[in-house]
């Protein structure tokens, strides 16, 4: 949300055009909240959420580990001061030469979800640890991540058995309950599946050691979400329920929950219009849209809080859209957004909760608009 530091920065710097401003103090507070909530879990920050070097350097100094989706992200984490021993190559879809490069850099922890990926790792990253991602239903998430990644628990047993046979360390199981997950029971369901995999392999003498609890920890947009402590307690209770006293090592991969509420986008109203004289719904066009970094408004999944200088005035529903010559560049139409009737062209609009997945989703010069500028303070 817009901290006083962000407000002061915008007031003194007056940056031109849309931009993201991230308050590092908020990121640090979020990291400490995760440490308190899950003191026995190692934190692997999901770099893809916001790879700003200032964020990575601060988290590395605070002791964070890192979840990388590519070799480039592995190198970003290392350049920020993280040793390779604190980096996981968490993408289940990797080129063999990228696995080899990460291995050359010292990475020894890799995600898989099929036998074919295990075989790649065995060829070029001998002796590495692998964890297999299992499918979850994503129920309760505003941005579900099911189907593309993971396999059913029965197949995960086959995948990890194959890893063991090829000389890799069958290290554990991972899952992702869906981004912006607000159902505290989601981890309970996923941990039940993980326990099945642990038990099946234990019968064969293959002892798994780790559960990667993934991400999914939310940030607050328009609706309140449970605090980190509530997630921590729910996860601990589920671990005890499914694993008893033999609780495995655990890691978490917060991305949105680490940086989402630390960032605010400053935007400007470019146009306010109607499509007919008797239309009751105004169209409000901002200088930023789906292609400028707000891709998560797709299907209106993420509804960002908007702040204007007219807040408190009478409101009416609006369609909110971006500035590009693309008909898909509409943010909210199915559920119009209530905005002040006094809002006018040229007004500044702050889009809160935008610290995650905005700069990385911003297109490179689509329609000639520059990528979203970012300031980390």
TrEMBL record:
> Which keywords does UniProt give here?
Lyase, Pyridoxal phosphate
Q: Which family does it belong to?
A: Belongs to the Orn/Lys/Arg decarboxylase class-II family.
Q: What is this protein called?
A: ornithine decarboxylase
Specify the superkingdom.
Bacteria
Q: What is its EC number?
A: 4.1.1.17
Q: Enumerate the CDD domains for this protein.
A: PLPDE_III_ODC
Q: Which residues form the Orn/DAP/Arg decarboxylase 2 N-terminal domain?
A: 27-259
Q: From the Swiss-Prot or TrEMBL record, what is one GO molecular function term?
A: lyase activity
Q: Which reaction does it catalyse?
A: L-ornithine + H(+) = putrescine + CO2
The Swiss-Prot or TrEMBL record lists the needed cofactor(s) as:
pyridoxal 5'-phosphate
Pathway given for this chain reads:
Amine and polyamine biosynthesis; putrescine biosynthesis via L-ornithine pathway; putrescine from L-ornithine: step 1/1
The record, for Pfam families, names:
Orn_Arg_deC_N
**Which InterPro entries does the record associate with it?**
Ala_racemase/Decarboxylase_C, De-COase2_CS, De-COase2_N, De-COase2_pyr-phos_BS, Orn/DAP/Arg_de-COase, Orn_de-COase, PLP-binding_barrel
Transmembrane annotation, as ranges: none
């Amino acid at each position: 949300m817009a901290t006083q530091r962000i407000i002061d920065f915008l007031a003194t710097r007056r940056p031109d055009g849309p931009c993201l401003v991230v308050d590092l103090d908020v990121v640090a507070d979020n990291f400490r909240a995760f440490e308190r909530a899950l003191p026995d879990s190692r934190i692997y920050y999901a770099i893809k959420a916001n790879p700003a070097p200032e964020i990575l350097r601060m988290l590395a100094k605070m002791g964070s580990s890192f979840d990388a989706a590519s070799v480039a992200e592995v190198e970003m984490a290392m350049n920020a001061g993280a040793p390779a021993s604190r980096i996981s190559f968490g993408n289940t879809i990797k080129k063999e030469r990228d696995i080899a490069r990460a291995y050359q850099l010292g990475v020894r922890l890799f995600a898989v979800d099929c036998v074919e990926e295990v075989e790649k790792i065995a060829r070029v990253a001998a002796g590495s640890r692998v964890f297999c991602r299992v499918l979850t239903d994503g129920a309760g998430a505003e941005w579900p991540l099911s189907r593309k990644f993971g396999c059913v628990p029965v197949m995960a047993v086959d995948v990890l058995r194959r890893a063991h046979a090829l000389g890799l360390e069958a290290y554990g199981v991972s899952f992702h309950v869906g981004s912006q997950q607000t159902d505290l029971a989601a981890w309970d369901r996923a941990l039940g599946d993980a326990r099945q995999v642990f038990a099946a392999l234990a019968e064969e003498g293959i002892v798994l050691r780790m559960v990667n609890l993934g991400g999914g920890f939310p940030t607050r947009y328009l609706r309140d979400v449970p605090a980190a402590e509530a997630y921590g307690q729910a996860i601990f209770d589920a671990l005890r329920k499914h694993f008893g006293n033999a609780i495995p090592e655990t890691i978490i991969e917060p991305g949105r929950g680490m940086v989402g509420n630390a960032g605010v986008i400053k935007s400007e109203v470019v146009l306010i219009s109607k499509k007919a004289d008797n239309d009751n719904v105004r169209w409000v066009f901002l200088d930023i849209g789906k292609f400028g970094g707000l891709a998560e408004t797709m299907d209106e999944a993420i509804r960002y809080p908007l702040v204007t200088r007219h807040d408190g005035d009478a409101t009416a529903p609006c369609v909110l859209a971006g500035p590009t010559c693309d008909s898909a560049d509409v943010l909210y139409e199915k559920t119009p957004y209530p905005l002040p009737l006094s809002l006018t062209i040229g007004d500044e609009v702050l889009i809160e909760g935008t610290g995650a997945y905005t700069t990385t989703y911003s297109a490179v010069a689509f329609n000639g608009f520059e990528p979203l500028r970012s300031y980390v303070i």
